[in-house]
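Query structure, 110 tokens:
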């Protein structure tokens, strides 16, 4: 089982990675620092966006599940509903014209 780290630590590490790659990142909603859920929105700056929810499998390994994909206003509406249901939720927004999310060494498929 993979040890879990706090959400604010994970967000800080992810932000540092995006900074090193010169990819803008914004914290749209800051949730519970210890165990808040994370949704990552990827804005490709062309009017479209994708959102992925961070989950863990039974062994504690991190997984990213597609949550929304389409016009940015529709993706934002999904995120707003998620945040209304979970005040501990973190919403991280990445701006990248190629749509890279870079959760791992490989970008997510588009």
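Result returned for the query:
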């Amino acid at each position: 089982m993979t040890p879990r780290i706090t959400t604010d630590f994970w967000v800080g590490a992810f932000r540092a990675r995006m900074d090193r790659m010169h990819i803008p990142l914004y914290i749209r909603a800051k949730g519970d620092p210890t165990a808040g859920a994370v949704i990552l929105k990827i804005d490709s700056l062309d009017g479209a966006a994708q959102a992925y929810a961070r989950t863990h499998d039974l062994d504690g390994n991190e997984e990213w599940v597609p949550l929304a994909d389409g016009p940015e206003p529709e993706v934002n509406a999904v995120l707003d509903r998620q945040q209304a249901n979970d005040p501990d939720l973190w919403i991280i927004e990445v701006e990248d014209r190629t749509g890279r999310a870079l959760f791992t060494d490989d970008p997510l498929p588009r």
